[in-house]
User: Fold Quinolinate synthase from Thioalkalivibrio denitrificans.
Amino acid sequence: GAELEAVRDRIKQLLHEQDAALVAHYYVDAELQRLAEETGGCVSDSLDMARFGKEHAASTLVVAGVRFMGETAKILSPEKRVLMPTLEAECSLDLGCPADEFNAFCDQYPDRTVVVYSNTSVGVKARADYVVTSSIALKLAEHLKARGEKILWAPDKHLGDYIRRQTGADMVLWDGSCVVHDEFKAGALLELKAKHPEAAVLVHPESPAAVIDLADVVGSTTQLVKAAGSLPNPTLIVATDSGIFYKMKQAAPGKTFIEAPTGGHSATCHSCAHCPWMAMNGLHNLLTTLESGDNEVLVDEALRVKALRSTQRMLDFAK
Ligand code: 13P
Ligand code: SF4
Assistant:
């Protein structure tokens, strides 16, 4: 209603006054995605969020997503002020890969090239040779394999296993997973496919292997949004966070979208596949952040400089 409209207007005014760009992930509230669109910010996957933040001229970046996304922005743009609606938004992959344990793991495999997913802390990125996101992980593994390099991969075991199966690269995997994608169930998905023979299945590679094996398209969130628009199928079954439907519906108006089944599916839960940390971002804490200047992302400078090498390699490789 009118109150919501006033909050939206106030946020737009503050973004403008503070020379700030809003950078949002597809999994955050549709209201935030819409604001990012309307104010010249961006809505994208984690690679394009990093690129946009680095290239944009704004002196402040407001990152609506989870902590590693804000930290990546700060690693790449230390001169910019980076704010987040909340600093409490974690990621199970990041939480499941503490830097000290990760360093000990790497010490066991000194001959391997260390490739980490961007869903990690600055300390983990500081130890890595390369940072990747799901959109370029396969390509980088192929590239390293062609150079005869062996890989240490962390932290997502499903994505690591998918890359290993696709490329045949020699990889050791850290044992981590995403709490959202780990819940998709292959058996129920098979039944759903049988009911909808006209449907294509879109899967994010953080899902279990048995779910990936049922996919028509496997890719990062941006790749899945693009596939939704370009595939001829009138119906799309989607195995990723339900926040993505805001953009998918824009990309493919008129198509029918069905959420892939999760273990937690019930009559009371219409969007079980939704990241609890992404859900912590909202219009009200965005407004409070802009008004107060609180929730600034700060990273240790010595770690940042180390993490910049592997993170910059991600951008260079993605070119
Ligand atoms: P994308 O890079 O595909 O956007 O993935 C980020 C993420 O957190 C998926 O759960
Ligand atoms: Fe992390 Fe999964 Fe949430 Fe993405 S959806 S931020 S991988 S917990």
Observations:
- Residues 301-318 form the longest helix (18 residues).
- Residues 181-274 form a domain with the Rossmann fold fold (CATH 3.40.50.10800).
- The mean pLDDT is 96.
- Residues 45-47, 119, 133-134, 178, 206, 220-221 surround 1,3-dihydroxyacetonephosphate (ligand 1) (CB under 6 Å).
